[in-house]
Backbone:
């Protein structure tokens, strides 16, 4: 019975196993990290949140199964429609209520479920860029036809996202930039693009540090940068404020803000040691804000130790390795580029989350794909995985059909060889029958003489 169920799950079986492993880790880690949230909102009822999360994980698994049954070529045809539909969703966030001091979420009427349009936009933009690149592989150096449309669309969408979600906007541009490199855009064009982006990025950084009031949430970005890179912020600031009042304000902001989160994450990691304190025994979960989401990797290390953290990292790296195998087997550029962009997005986002948890990066708000507690973010991740598995399944089908064709050709060749042998034998028999009796006897006599000489 179990084998019959497995047969229905098509595509790369190793990727399916990695998905199941990450989802199991997600359930255990979320259960260990939601106590503070439960106390704040449900009078300590952690059962409500773990059941809700398990339902979301189950639905996500169903989404993966559903989308892996859909032919990936559908997304090639619908790429423009998917992209255009993401724009009004992003614009609607300007009229949405603040969530955690950011207008990122839209609520679906009737069911009370909220989602971030930026998750949908990432998915839509990568499909669109993959289509443009795959359509123009024979004319990839034509920047007006290839590079310019992708950069303009990416710039517009990232500018809209930037207002409410700085880290997602920057990461999305990085995803597209790497996809352009993999899609064989000439290095000269990429170098010019990177140079322009560097200038724009520096000007944006100067604006955040010196005039944070000009952009929504810029003051939040400045506080995070100041908490992580105080020397850089002081160097780039036009106003070199050395007064005790200024230093005291920065110190208080750091303790109450980003440095507090970083400190609690460090304590969690230190408590975990090599083997961890054991499942559900984390103490920093009650001290660390967003422990079930932004800092879940720190909780994993506290519970399961450095070894547990390494296992999780290996699972993500294994996922991108298996995707690489799928990409190498692709016969066409669109599925190869789409697979790469989607898997790179998921793994890169998870690595950024890990870097934040171990305080290598400032706080970004990026979730850990398939592990952090969340609804729609996990759903969009599941759609991406479904598409990758659909591509893998298509490759398997193509290879099976190709093998059948090769087997058919071999059988035909073997039959042809047999037929040629039969014809040759029949021809020889007819030739012998047509010889005079005297010639046949003489040949037989010659054979006897040769045999006698051999014996001697």
Residues:
């Amino acid at each position: 019975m179990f084998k019959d169920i497995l047969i229905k799950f098509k595509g790369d079986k190793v990727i399916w196993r990695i998905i199941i492993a990450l989802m199991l880790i997600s359930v255990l880690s979320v259960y260990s990290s939601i106590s503070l949230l439960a106390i704040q909102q449900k009078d300590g009822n952690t059962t409500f949140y773990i059941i809700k999360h398990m339902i979301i994980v189950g639905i996500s698994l169903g989404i993966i199964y559903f989308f892996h049954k859909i032919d990936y070529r559908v997304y090639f045809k619908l790429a423009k429609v998917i992209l255009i539909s993401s724009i009004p969703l992003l614009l609607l966030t300007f009229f949405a209520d603040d969530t955690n001091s950011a207008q990122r979420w839209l609520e679906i009427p009737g069911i009370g479920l909220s989602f971030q349009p930026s998750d949908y936009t990432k998915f839509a933009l990568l499909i669109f860029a993959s289509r443009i690149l795959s359509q123009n592989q024979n004319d990839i150096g034509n920047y007006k036809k290839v590079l310019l449309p992708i950069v303009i669309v990416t710039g517009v969408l990232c500018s809209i996202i930037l207002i409410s979600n700085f880290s997602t906007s920057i990461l999305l541009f990085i995803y597209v930039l790497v996809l352009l490199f993999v899609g064989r855009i000439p290095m000269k064009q990429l170098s010019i693009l990177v140079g322009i982006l560097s200038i724009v990025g520096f000007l944006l950084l100067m604006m955040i540090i010196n005039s944070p009031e000009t952009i929504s949430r810029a003051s939040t970005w400045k506080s995070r940068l100041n908490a992580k890179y105080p020397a850089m912020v002081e160097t780039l600031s036009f106003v070199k404020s050395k007064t005790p009042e200024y230093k005291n304000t920065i110190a208080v902001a750091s303790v109450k803000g980003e440095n507090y989160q970083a400190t609690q994450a460090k304590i969690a990691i230190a408590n975990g040691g090599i083997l961890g304190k054991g499942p559900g025994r984390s103490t920093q979960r009650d001290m660390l804000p967003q422990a079930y989401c932004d800092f879940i990797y720190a909780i994993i290390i506290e519970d399961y130790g450095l070894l547990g953290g390494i296992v999780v990292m290996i699972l993500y790296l294994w996922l991108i390795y298996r995707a690489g195998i799928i990409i190498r087997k692709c016969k066409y550029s669109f599925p190869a580029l789409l697979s790469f962009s989607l898997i790179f997005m998921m793994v890169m986002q998870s690595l950024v989350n890990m870097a934040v948890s171990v305080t290598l990066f400032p706080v970004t708000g990026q979730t850990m794909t398939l592990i952090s507690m969340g609804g729609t973010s996990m759903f969009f991740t599941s759609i991406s995985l479904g598409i990758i598995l659909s591509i893998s399944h298509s490759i398997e089908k193509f290879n099976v059909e190709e093998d059948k064709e090769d087997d058919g050709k071999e059988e035909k060749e073997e039959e042809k060889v047999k037929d040629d042998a039969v014809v040759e034998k029949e021809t020889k028999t007819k030739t012998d029958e047509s010889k005079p009796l005297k010639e046949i006897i003489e040949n037989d006599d010659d054979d006897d003489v040769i045999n006698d000489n051999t014996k001697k």
